Amino acid sequence: MPPVLFRFRRLQTRLAALYGTLLLSAVALSMVLTFLWRPLLHALRPHEAALAGGLAFAAVALLIVAIGTLLLARNLTRRVTALHEAVQRIKQGDFVEAPVGADDELGRLSVSFNRMIGDLRDREDRLTHVALHDPETGLPNRLALERLSASQDGLWVILLGIDRFEVVRGAIGYDAMARLLTAIARRMSQLSGASISRVSAAGLGLAVVAADEDAALRIATALCEAAHEPFTVSGAPVDVTLTAGVARGSAPGAALSSPIDRAAIAIAQARNQRRTAAGFDPAAYGDPQGNLSLISELMAALDNGEFSLAYQPKYDFRAERITGVEALARWTHPRRGEVAPDLFVGMAEETGHIRPLTEWVVRQAILDQQTLIAAGHEVIVSINVSGRLLSDDAFADFALEQIAGTEARLCFEITETAVMHDPERALAVIGRLSAAGIRISLDDYGSGLSSLSYLKRIPADELKIDKSFILGLGQSGRDALLVKSTIDLAHGLGLRITAEGVESPTALALLRGMGCDMAQGFLIGRPKPLAKLLVRLEGLADGQPDTVARIIAA
Ligand code: C2E
Ligand code: CA
Ligand code: CA
Question: Where does ligand 1 bind, in terms of residues with CB under 6 Å?
Answer without folding.
Answer: 312, 328-329, 341-342, 345, 358, 361, 384, 386, 413, 443-444, 467, 500-503, 521-522, 527
